[in-house]
Amino acid sequence: MTPVATTFFFYFLAILAVSSALATVVQKNPVHSALALIVTLLAIAGLYLMLYAPFIAGVQIVLYAGGIMVLFLFVIMLVTSSKRPTRNDSTSNGQWH
């Protein structure tokens, strides 16, 4: 008799990884795209755990989902904040705030 839970978790993680990978590509907002990519990386780490590769799963979570995605989000936030309109001198009337 084969265990049912293993098959269920495999299909759940596979569908989660594929759907969040598609969401990464389809999203128009870059922050939402980066968050969907984090979900993809976590689902792949779960698949590594099912393959009895805990070191690779840990590296996947700590290095990619933890470190590199934080860097991506920082750069995205930095780039989008520079696109905001700056205050014009005519609106402030030369007064200090």
Description:
The chain is mainly α. It has a domain at 15-80: Up-down Bundle (Four Helix Bundle (Hemerythrin (Met), subunit A)). Helices cover 79% and strands 0% of the residues. It has four helices and no strands. 9% of the residues are buried.
In short:
The protein is mainly α and 97 residues long. The protein has 4 helices and no strands.
- What is the number of strand segments? 0
CATH topology label of the domain at 15-80: Four Helix Bundle (Hemerythrin (Met), subunit A)
Question: Can you tell me the overall shape?
Answer: elongated
How far apart the termini lie comes to 74 Å
What is the tally of helical segments?
Answer: 4
Characterize the main sheet.
none
What's the name of the CATH homologous superfamily of the domain at 15-80? NADH-ubiquinone/plastoquinone oxidoreductase chain 6, subunit NuoJ
Set out the fold topology.
Elements: H1 4-26, H2 30-50, H3 54-82, H4 89-92
